[in-house]
Amino acid sequence: MSVSNSSAGISRVLLAALVDATLDLPVLRRLARFYRHLGFNVPRFTTAVGVGALLGIAAVRLFLLAAHSQPGYLAAYFGLIGAAACVACAAMLVGRRPALVRIGWALGSLVALASLLMYVVSRTLGLPDLPQAVGRWAYPPGTFAMALSALFLAIHGSVLTGMNVAYPDRQPWHD
Prior knowledge:
- 71% of the residues lie in helices and 0% in strands.
- The protein is an all-alpha fold.
- The two termini are 20 Å apart.
């Protein structure tokens, strides 16, 4: 058994213990453990969807950086999100070592989470020097980036639970 398979097995056991400990209702527990009965062994497709979502997030943020005048802190945030998304994509695609690929996925999750949280905060609480964004949920680029962020987080969650496999890993499943 390789190190990546044993660490994935440990993370699945820890996640299962967390689910069991936090959910006391039997119905909710059964619903939350659905991933134990499903599995997809399409690592290149899973990675391609993750990379596509991250590149979409980067494209939206760089479009907003170029198309509108932004406060300085927001321009720096957009540039940082775009650069971090590209670095995460490179690690996910070029990395031959599973540890580097996992770092790419983790960085991608940080990018997606930061993008999602910043969008929600800007629409609910507002940002300095940007009061016109409050309540503007129907802004297409932001909504698209929010959907891509949620997609990436869902895909990475499915990889962490073992439902999906990401390149370069493969599952030795036999039916």
